[in-house]
Design a protein that fits this description.
By secondary structure, the chain is mostly helical. The protein has helices at residues 2-14, 19-36, 45-57, 63-80, 105-113, 118-130, 134-138. The N and C termini lie far apart (69 Å).
Length: 152
Amino acid sequence: MPHLRKMMLEELERRNYAQSTIHCYLRAVTEFSLHFHRPPNQLGPEHIRHYQAQLFGRRKLAPSTVTQHLAALRFFYIKTLRKPWSIAETPYPKKVQRLHIIPSSEEIAQLIDSALTPFHHIMLMTLYATGVRRAELTRLKITDIDSRRVGE
């Protein structure tokens, strides 16, 4: 496996993948190989399907984590080994869509009133009133405010 690992690492680095992605992909392929006690180049689509079911069933991983494992295996087979990969045989799991929890006006008022200083109070009010992101608010300057339109 060290030779295959080196080949995959070179392919990942050649494509300028982030270090965190490189680490995750290498770990995923290693875990896949260890699960079957065989080098990954000796494993095929039926092993991948079995492994995907095991990730959901026994390990109870989230769909996004299973997708990451499949992406790593897909990269390994397509880019490192130059083998075909069938999306139909190894589909990515359906993404779970969660609805955002929208706080009530009472909860918003309670949050703003809990500010410890007038500065924090104004920041919370500005965030809520304008919908800007926190990072945008921290970079806000006086010149950004259109004072001619205040009070319209």
